[in-house]
What we know:
Layout: H1 7-13, H2 60-82, H3 87-117, H4 124-128
Helix pairs in contact: 1-3, 2-3
Amino acid sequence: MLKKGSKLNSILTGSCPKCHEESMYLEKNPYKMGKIFEMHETCSHCGTRYKIEPSFFYGAMYVSYGLSIAFGVAAFIIANVFIGLGLIHSFIAIVATLILAFPIILRLSRNIWISMFVQFDPNWKSKTN
Length: 129
């Protein structure tokens, strides 16, 4: 499921979308808030530029919105349907979930966004030499 060459591998691991050899981020832990946005400029293996153009990752805000909706709906269903909480407590569960998942949502949205524009290349080694 998470083998090299799949978009899911790149999205969930935060690795280079072209070669899947290294992390795009300087700090792999998204909960180190001071370094959450810090990324390598290029991949040290295949040379892919991560910031394709200035303000490239602004588009990830749209993906982030969709992910936030998905996390919120999941939190509501778990809190209201499975646990049986009322609407106010379910709303509190949604807010708490979104606050706690913010770093994960941010990284996932960036990973999804760049994966939409950069494809995996199994022959990247022969093109860099």
